[in-house]
Each structure stands twice: as structure tokens, then as C-alpha cells.
Amino acid sequence: MDADAKGLEIKQIKKDDVLTCKLTGWLDPNTSPKLINEIDLTGVKKLIFDMEKVEYVFSAGLRSFLIFQRLMTNQKGSIELINLSEQVRQIFEYAGFESMLEKRA
Amino acid sequence: MIERFKLWLSTKSLAFKLIASNVVCVSIGFAVLASFIFSRSEQMIRAQIEENAQRMTQLYATDVLNLFDDTEQTVLNAKNALIQISEKNEKTIQMLLSAALNTTEHSDLNFTDAWVYVFASEDVSKGTLFLETAKNNLAIDFKKIHIDDFYQKFPWFNEVPKEEKIYWSEPYLDQTSGKTVVSCLFPFKFSESEQFNGLIALSVDLTNITKDMESFSMQDYGRLLLLSRDGLYVSHPDPKISLKKTIFDLSKKLRLPVLSKVGNDLKEGKSGIVEIPYSSVVRGEAIFFYAPIVKNKWGVCLVYSKKRLFQPIHEFLMAAGLAIAIGMAVLLLFINFICRKSTNQLLLLSRIAAKYSAGDFSSHFEVPPSSKEINALSKAISDMRINILHFIEREKNTASEQQRIQSEMDIARRIQKATMSANLPESKAFRINHLMLPAKKVSGDFYDFFFIEENRFAFVVADVSGKDVPAALYMMKTQALIKNIARSEKSLADVFARVNNELYEGNESCMFVSAFMGVINIKTGELEFVNAGHPHPFLDVGKGYQLMNITNNIVLGVRKDFVFKVEKLKLKKNNRLFIYTDGVTEAENKKASFYSEDRLAEVLLKESPDTLKTVMQSIKLFAAGYSQSDDITMLEFVFLGEEEKMFSIEPEISKLGDVLDFVSQDMQNRNILEQKRFNMIMACEEIFSNIALYASAVNEIEILTNIEDGYYTVVFKDDGKKYNPLTRENPNIDIPLEERDVGGLGIFIVKKVADIFKYTYKNKKNILTIGIKI
Fold first, then answer.
1. Does B436 map to a domain?
2. B77 in contact with chain A, both atoms CB, cutoff 8 A
3. Per the CB < 8 Å rule, is B685 touching A28?
4. Structural domain for B66, as ranges
5. Which long-range contacts (CB under 8 A, 24 or more apart) does B398-404 make?
6. Which of A26, B258, B290, B454 could form a disulfide with B301 if both were Cys (CB 3.0 to 4.6 A apart)?
7. Residue B246 carries which DSSP code?
8. Domain co-membership, B111 together with B190
């Protein structure tokens, strides 16, 4: 396990009302608050998380995404998670979060 | 007694024995010879002496008798003349007497004196005695003596019987002439006269006869004696006896009744021979020959000194004895010399032999040649020395050869030992105990264990038929074959099939191998095993060792292309396997009974910290010093499963990274697949976070990881308040996300990703076990 992966890096790209966040690392009780705190949803209609470089999403991470789901619903927007690894996708499916995920090709 | 004598004799030297036996034999021989010679000589001498004695005694008896006869004749002549004369006066009587005396035929008669007593008157008491005292000079004075004076002078005269008969007196010593004389008396009557008119007496000198006898006596060994009527000794060398003692007196004095017998015999006119133990005549033992002079009962005795008589024989025997003694002494000296010489050499040889027996062969010896026997012995000892030296030399060579073989065997043993126990594998998944005790230097048994693959571990115990070097060579071959083939063949059945065929090829010495081989997956505990005619191992699956009931198959190396049946078993943690060779069960004791499978089973059932040592002690106790006949090999395989790993940490969420690092690293070490690792990390994160964030009164969390029974497990132990997370309700995942509760997801995910999720509370600790099938 890569030591750096324990942290979390967020790269935000805003284009019109679409905010794409590229996440690197993992989402645990220590890193998840950072996600909530750093992302500004003002004027965002569509929130996209690029999960390509996310190794693990633990329940704390799942809860963060649930919070974003609610926030986006409140401002009539939507949320989508893309480029999930098979294993991480499996976790989201276990939790019943399939609706958040990018539809399989 | 005889035994003691023999024992005593056995300690004596040869010389002593030879000398002693010689002395005894010669002495006996000499004694027999001497007694024979002695008795024969004695007989001869006796015969000769007797003849001689008879002749001598007769001769002297006749002499004496003649003397008496002549004397009597003279007396009678004188009487006749006296009777015829009418005028009886001095002159006529003198004439008559002279004439009578002179007419005696034997002029050698010595008359010492002669009397004619004529009673002058009728009255005897008034008679006048006429005496004549010289033979050759008759012109002697007639003495007239009164009869009373006469009687007074010659008292014995009264004893003369007054008869007209010759009367002989006992001999006596004539005082005037100093000669031994005897008197012949004749009382006479003048014709028809009633009265005795007178007496004629004539004394005869016996000196001539006694002298004659004495001259004979001068011959030393014999003496002649003359005995009178009363047994009086007329002639005797002892003057105290001569004319004084009778033979009867001496008989009484010397207490020799035999003398009285002689005296009586002579009186009775008998002759004879007697032996007397002591005679005063010869002063010693004597032989008496005696002959009577019948006429007047006198006797002649011839006394021989026995000592003198037999002296020549004695002297001869003495001389002979001396000669023999000297001869024998010389002989003994020779014997002694020869014996000493021989025995000295024997002693010398025995000293040499003793030296050799003490191991000193350095000196050759020289014994000067002496006798055939000694030379033979000397040569034999000398040859023995040479042979022993050769033998020692040969032994030395053999010994060094033996030593070389020994040291090579030691090297072989070391090589063999190194082959077997050099590579004790380092694994925490199992433990191997092994013990081998070869009966000889090298063993025909072997055990081996090695990794075939990373997780597949093989162990073998085998027993090659036979013992010692051939078995050891075959064992090395078998061991190498099994190891090499096991690494290239996947299937255990194929391994044994190939090993079997390889051993079968070129097995000219018809050897074979019994073997048990097991291959275990140390991750899972799955054991495959094959048994080629080997004693069945014992298996302990938690209830103590039990004999395994497994397929036998055939021993290796005897049947080509045999298909070996492989069996399977799954070992759990602490299951054990005990494999051994028949050297264990067939260990013998003095009574030739075997240690047996039953005894082994009994010992194995007992709990022991060191199984092999306990079994070995039991075998030794059983054998009780009886020498080991077969190699003893034992191997114990204990399956420990995966090693448990432990990690302790404070219940801080900030430590989450450390916890996950530990588990992640552990899984990588245990080669857990990536997908499995992901799931376990997921589960561990949820559990730790849950405890760290929500549990109360927790001081420390213990994390233990292991592989058990095909699962990788992680155990979380905390000392916090009792709480079973499994009781938490699962979140409803079917409702829209907007309405979902944010809690309860963690435990739910654990349930999803883990194959095992258990909770227990033990020793005041919450224990959560998560397991993933691997």
C-alpha cells in the first residue's frame, strides 16, 4: 500500500455549471471531512467525481457521497461517480449506491 | 595321602626324581641279591663247617678215649701183677708198679703220679699207703702214710666206690706239678679175699690234649672244649671257668638252657649242633658242635664264632655294597649332570618363553645343542617367535587397514548424517522432529524432508533391506531419486512410480525399499501420502496417536510399473504424524521378543514433550542392554498451521493507517490474492474505525492475524464495554439515497466482504473475528 495514498488529493475543474473533482487516495474517516470542506458547490448543476485514482472507499467515504447527493438534490443538480475500479464499484453496490454511479458501458 | 605325595613329587626337579628312583631301584636290587648271596653262602659254609666239626670232634673224642683206655689198661696190668706177688713189701710193689707203668704201650701217656695203696693188714684203718710220683723216675721214695692222713689229704677219696671196678675222678689241677690231671682208680682184692686190699691210682696229665685243643683253637673262628662227666670245662680260655665251672653252671648264669641240653646230651652219649646267642668262649653268637666220649661220659665241643664264620660273606657283601654304592654315586652324578644340563636349558627356554609371552620378541636366543628333545623344543620356540613376529606384522597391517576402513566408515556416516538432517526447513507452519540410531556405522534407513514448491513440503521415511554398506549405498541412491523426482513430478503417485522403476532397473542385488512419503500444503494442511510397504504411521488429530489404517502398496524396487495408491488427509493445527522404521517395533531383548507395535502404541498415547526421546527411552528400557540389530529411525511431523501475528494499538482513528498497513503487509507476506486483500482491508477499516470512533472505555486494541483451515483471519480484541456489532440492524438499501440514514453502513459492508464475521466476549474482551476464504 502506497503511503501517500493514505491521504486524499482533490483536483477541482469547473466548466460552466459542471464541477469535476479528480480524487487521489482513499476515503476514510480521516480524509472524508476534507472532501466536504474543500468542495464548493455554488452554481454547480452537475457534480462529477473521477474515482480513477481512489483505492478504497470506506463507509465514511460513502457517507460523504450521500451528503453530496442530498446537497445536489437540494439545488436541483445531480451527482455522478466515474472511472471506479471493480472493487470500489462493488462496495458502492453493496451499499445500494448504484444510482450515483456512471452507467456501465 | 597318595595324592599329597604326587603333589609333592610334582614340585621336584627332574634330576631329583631320576636320582630318587635310581636309588630306590638299585637298593632293592642289591638287597635281594645280597640276601640271596648271603643265604647261599651261609648254607655252604654251614655244610662245610658241620662236616669239619664232626670230623674234629670225633678225632679228639677218640684221642681222649684212647688216653682213658690206655690208662685203664695200665691200671689193670698193675693190679694183676700186684695180685700175683706173694710178698707184698715195698720193694716188690715198687718193682711191680714200675714194670706195670713201663709196659704201657703208649709212651705218650704222661702219668703225673701213681699210687698203690695196699692195706698193710686186714684192718684197713691200719693200712699203709705207698705213693709213687714220677713216671720216668720210678725210683722214688715210697711214702708210708697212715690211712687217716690220707683221707685227710684227699677227701674225695671217700667218694670212690669200694668196688672192684675202674673209677675215674673228675679232672683237677695237680698242686705239685701245676698240670691238669685226671685220676684213674681201681680198688682191688688179693684173690678171693673178702676185703679190699688196696687201691691203685694213676693220674694222667691232660695237658697234651688240652694244648692240642688250644692249638686248634688258635685258628680263631673255632675253639675246642673238653667237658668232663659232670660237665666241667676241662679246657676253657677263661681261667675262671677252666676246671672251676660246669656247663650247667654257665647255663644257669647266662640263662642259656641250651647249654644244659648240651651237657645232658653228652651225658646220654648224644652228639648234636646248637646255636647259642652268646658264648663266653667266642664272646658272641656261636654254633656248638658236640660229640660224646661215651665211655666215661665226657664230651668234646667245637664252638664256632658265627661272626667269624660269616665274616668273609659280610666282608664280601660289604665290599660289593660299597662298589655298588660308588658305582651308583658316579651314575647319579652323571644323571644329575645330564638332568641339570637339560633342565637348565629348559629353564632358559621357559624364561625365553615367558619373555615372549610378556610381548618382548626383540631378542633372538641361542641355546647350545644338548639333547634331541631340547633341540626340538628350542627350535619350536624359535620358530614360534618368527611366526608370531610375522603374525604381529600381518595383524598390524590388518589393523591399520581396519582403521582405514573404520575412518572411512566414519566419514560415510558423517556424509550420510549430513544428507539427512542438514536442511532442516525454516517454517513456522510445522515442526519436524527426527531421530536416527544406526545399528552399524552407516544406516540403511533414511528420512528426508524438503520443499517441493513454496507451500508444498515433503517428508519421507524409508528402510532399505539389509544393513551396513550395501544398504547405505542403496539408501543414498533411493534418497537422491526420491528428492529429484519429487521436484519434477506433480503427482505423488508418479513420484513413487518413477522411483520404483528406477530402483527396479539394474537392481541386481535384489534390494528393496519400504517407504512412506507425505506431501503437505502448509497453507491448507492438505496432506497427500503414499505408503510403499512401510510400517503404518501413527496419527494424532487431537485424541492422541492412533495407528493409521492406510493402503500398503508394494515395496519399491521389486515390481516394474506398479501403480501406487495415494491417499489424502487434511491436517489441522497441532495434528501430528509419527513415522518410523521397523527397527523400532522389532527392537529385541534378551528373550528374543520384539518391542512390538502394541508397546509403541501404548507409549505414543502418553503425553510427552518429546515424543521421540520418550519412545527411544522406552525401547532402551525394553532392550535392557541387548545390542541393537537394526537401524532405528523415527520422524514426527507436527502441523502448526500459519503463524499467528499480533499487533497492538491505541484506539485512535489516527492510527487507522498503521492498522491497515500491518494487515496489508501481513497478507502480502502470506501471499493472499489481491481481491481477498481488498476485502479484508475494507472489513478491517470498518471494524477499527467503529471501535476507535464509537466504543467506550477501550484502552488498547489487539489485532491477531493467521491462516487457519483455509481462511485468512483477523481478530480484533478490545477491552471496552461489551458490544456486539453484529446485533446492529442492517440499513435499508432499497430506499432512495436522499432518504438514507448515514449510519450503520460500516458493519453492513463488513458483512458483505467477509466470509467469516463472528463476535464473542471472552475474558472481559470483545472479540471480533473476520475471515476471508483463501
1. yes
2. no
3. yes
4. 42-322
5. none
6. B290
7. B
8. yes
One domain for residues B570 and B504: yes
* CB-based contact B409:B442 (threshold 8 Å): yes
Tens of pLDDT, residues B578-628: 999 998 998 888 888 898 899 999 999 888 889 999 999 999 999 888 888
Q: What is the grid cell recorded at A59?
A: 463507509
Question: Quick one: angle between helices B674-694 and B656-669, nearest 10?
Answer: 150
Same domain flag for B156 and B179:
yes
User: What are the backbone dihedrals phi and psi of residue B229, each rounded to the nearest 5 degrees, phi first?
Assistant: -60, -40
Residues B734, B693, single domain; the answer is yes
Nearest CA in chain A to B740: A66
Cβ atoms < 10 Å from Cβ of B497: 20
- Give the model's pLDDT for residue B276: 86
The H or E element containing residue B655 is: none
Q: What is the ipTM of this complex?
A: 0.91
Amino acid at B736: P
Is some CB atom of chain A closer than 8 A to the CB atom of B695? no
Q: Which helix (H) or strand (E) holds B411?
A: helix B372-421
**pTM for this structure?**
0.45
To the nearest 5 percent, what fractions of chain A are helix, strand and coil?
40, 35, 30
Picking from A87, A6, A30, A66, the residue whose alpha carbon sits closest to that of residue B744 is: A66
- Full residue range of the structural domain in which residue A18 is found: 3-100
Grid cell locating B719: 477491552
**Residue type at position B125:** S
Whether A12 is covered by a domain: the verdict is yes
Per-residue pLDDT of B93-115, as tens digits, reads: 667 666 666 655 455 566 666 66
Q: Is B486 exposed, middle or buried (0-12, 13-18, 19+ CB in 10 A)?
A: buried
**Residue B67 cell numbers, joined:** 688216653
Contact A59 B746 (CB under 8 A): yes
Best probe of the A interface among B678, B679, B747, by most A CBs < 10 A, is: B678
Gap between the terminal Cα atoms of chain A: 29
Give yes or no for A28 touching B (CB within 8 A).
yes
CA distance, residue B668 to nearest chain A CA (Å): 10
Q: Is residue A105 part of a domain?
A: no
The rounded distance, in Å, linking the Cα atoms of B29 and B44 is 23
